[in-house]
Structure formats: structure tokens, C-alpha cells
Amino acid sequence: MWYQSFWFTQILIIAALTLAFFAFLYNKERRWLAFINTLFVFIILSALSIFIQLNHNRKISGFRTITYHFKSIKDLSDFEADKYSADVVTNADLNDVQLKEVIYKATNQLQKVKKDAKVIWLSIFDAENADFSNLDESNPNFIAQTQWTQKDYFGLLPKSFMDNDNYKNVRIFFNHLNEK
């Protein structure tokens, strides 16, 4: 809240010292005039502090934390390489840029956990109770599917994976129903 801000507390301390100075040490004939002028300055500074804090709070409220988590991680390794697949659940109302960042961060997170990974597939959904086995346009909760391969990997990959976008080194297939 605005009354808990650092600025407001500092203004209160400065104003209290100024009012004490003018009330007890300043010229007695002008004491009330000085007191009223100081009080007026204090009110202006307080209003300015409140305005700045409310403006700051309004700007911060515009930002929203984007979360995601792994629903499941499967080891699909074969004789060629270590391959992993994961189902990721994220927010439903993400734009393209936010969704690509979630994909990139989730891929990097899985790379850090599975350091031996050569191929990572992600399936992105927007609901906990989604049908995780249905990865086509008829599933309204299916957002995207991704494929990341390590740069030096030249082994077999499924020919069925078709991408319609990419971000950094991740190939992405966006579901047309949810494409933004």
C-alpha cells in the first residue's frame, strides 16, 4: 500500500523535523505562518509521494507472471541417442511471444535435468485436465508441439513432425485452433 512505501515514511520524518523546527525554534512572530507554510509543503510532498506510488502500483499490476509446469516426462531413448518427451501445462491466454518464451524455457529446463538429451519433444497444453494423448487440431487444449535436437545430432527423427514456426533452435508446430 502507499502508506507502507519508503518514500512516504521519509517524507513524514522530514516533515516532522521541519514542523518541530518551525514550531519551537523559529521567530515567534512568524511561527504560525511558518507552520502553515511547512504544513502546506508537507501535504504537497505527501500527495506527490502517493501519486508516484499509485502510478508505480498501476504499472506493476499490468505485468502478469507466466507459469508452466511439466505434467509428465517420458524417456524415449533408443540405440542412437537419449530422447525425451514431456507434456507441459501453461496459461491459456498467451500470445505468440510469451508462448515461444515458455517453450524455450521449458526446453532449457529439461536439458538441464536430462544433460544427456540429444532430442527433446514438448507437447504444450493449457489445462490440467486436457487429453494429453490427443495431439491434433481437434483437441482444444492442445497449443503446440516442439522438437529440439542437439546441433551435432544426425540420427533418425520422426518424419511425421511438421513445424510451422521456430524459435531460436526449437522447431514448433502451433495448433491452428489456438494459433494467435
Q: Compute the number of helices.
A: 3
Q: Topology as H/E string?
A: HHEEHEEEE
Fraction of residues in β-strands: 15-25%
In this structure, how is the largest beta sheet organized? 6 strands, mixed
Number of strands: 6
Rg estimate, integer Å: 29 Å
First-to-last CA distance: 36 Å
Question: Oligomeric status of the shown chains?
Answer: single chain
Computed structural class: alpha+beta
Shape: rod-shaped
Strand order of the largest sheet: 1-2-3-4-6-5
Low-confidence stretches: none
Architecture blueprint of SSEs:
Layout: H1 6-24, H2 31-61, E1 68-75, E2 82-90, H3 96-113, E3 117-125, E4 142-149, E5 165-167, E6 170-174
Helix pairs in contact: 1-2
Polypeptide structure, described:
With 180 residues, the protein is an alpha+beta fold. The chain contains three helices and six strands. It has a six-stranded mixed β-sheet with strand order 1-2-3-4-6-5, covered by helices on one side. Helix 1 runs antiparallel to helix 2.
Short note summarizing the structure:
With 180 residues, the protein is an alpha+beta fold.
